Amino acid sequence: MASFMEINRFNLIPLSLSSVCACKRRPFSKDLILSKTSSSLSLGLALGGSRSMFCFDRDRRYNISASKRVIIAVVRAEHDSADQVESKESIKGHNPISKENSLLSLQENQKGTQLKKRVIFGLGIGISVGGVVLTGGWAFTMALAAAVFVGAREYFELVRSRGIAVGMTPPPQYVSRVCSIICALMPMLTLYFGHIDVSVTSAAFVLAMALLLQKGNPRFAQLSSAVFGLFYCGYLPCFWVKLRCGLAAPALNTRIGRAWPILLGGQAHWTVGLVATLISISSIIAADTYAFLGGKAFGRTPLTNISPKKTWEGALAGLAGCIATSVVLSKIFCWPSSLLSGIVFGILNFFGSLFGDLIESMIKRDAGVKDSGSLIPGHGGILDRVDSYIFTGALAYSFVKTILPLYGV
Question: Confidence class of residue 269 from pLDDT cuts 50, 70 and 90?
């Protein structure tokens, strides 16, 4: 009788001949020997009598002549890796404490990595923004236009998301792209013409015509979401151009301006717009930082359902930090000249940053997302970083331009 056998990678169970063969035979002088290596499998059969030893190697076939002797073996076909996985899983299953500890350590490592990314990219962004603000002019405007374009793209992606799109018709894709381009052009047109009215009126007209001439039935929801996008992502950021570049009156009492190098513009470089922009941005950073620390340490009362993590205690801490920063910087820059003006300027910066943050949180909540994008590692999207600045520029410019006598000099 002839049989054929093909052997792959197996974990073999050692067997004795007494348990393998059920028939009555004379006892063999040698035992059945099963051997296995990690890379290849070899099986050796040492039979008694005049029979010789047969060897089986992996991936080969052999004709076995047993001369009316049938040997039945039971083999468990499992790979080495499977055995190792099962052993690890059994160990983890019997030791839940070690599993929880490993998960906690993994979460701590992830938090540490996330915090490191936030700090590194935050410092990089802060230094870059500071340099652009000090430069002013077209450098400041072009950097703002680039941020506006990316923010507008994120906004229209949120509008087209599943959460907001349910129950309303979002603008077509080409309308979203056109709106993003128009929003990016608005800061440049503001610097070039000195005002923003023409660009906003023209953009609204072009947008309305594009929606009315589209294929299918135009919807009011399309028009409203697109117009708000122009207002939110294009019109409001233009006030930072008007604040930084439009208020060109020199801050005569600023001590830093007196020592500023002539090659970098001298004292004339330090205008009311530059000083107001630096104080406003620094106050917003202080408001966010103190609100986070105060809410983490003392936060108990929720501020609003829009953002459950925000608390009244954190908001009050942010308000105090914003006012303190505004007053301290006003003393350093000697602008504005009165203490009351510095306090009011800090209050306006705080409320602009707070409500800008809440509005962006409302949009993200309706969209069902945590971050507006993933452009900045550890921070999310552009809108996640600039939401506190969107309304603040308009408030700061209106305060300096309309309320402060002689621009606060």
Answer: confident
From 75, 52, 68, select the one nearest 6 (Cα to Cα).
Answer: 75
In this structure, what token pair is assigned to residue 141?
A: 């405007």
User: 68-126: per-residue pLDDT in tens?
Assistant: 343 334 344 344 444 444 444 444 444 556 666 676 666 666 666 766 777 787 788 88
Q: Which residues pair with 55 in a beta bridge?
A: 44
pLDDT in tens, 209-261: 888 887 777 788 888 889 899 999 999 999 999 999 999 888 878 888 888 88
pLDDT of amino acid 317: 96
- The whole-angstrom separation of Cα 322 and Cα 309 is 20
Burial 201-218 (b: 16+ CB within 10 A, else e): eebbeebeebbeeeeeeb
Which tens digit of pLDDT belongs to each residue from 40-55?
444 444 444 444 444 4
CA dihedral of residues 137, 138, 142, 148 (deg, nearest 10): 40
- The burial class, CB within 10 Å (0-12 / 13-18 / 19+), for 106 is exposed
Between 198 and 184, residue with greater pLDDT: 184
- Residue 356 structure tokens: 């800008």
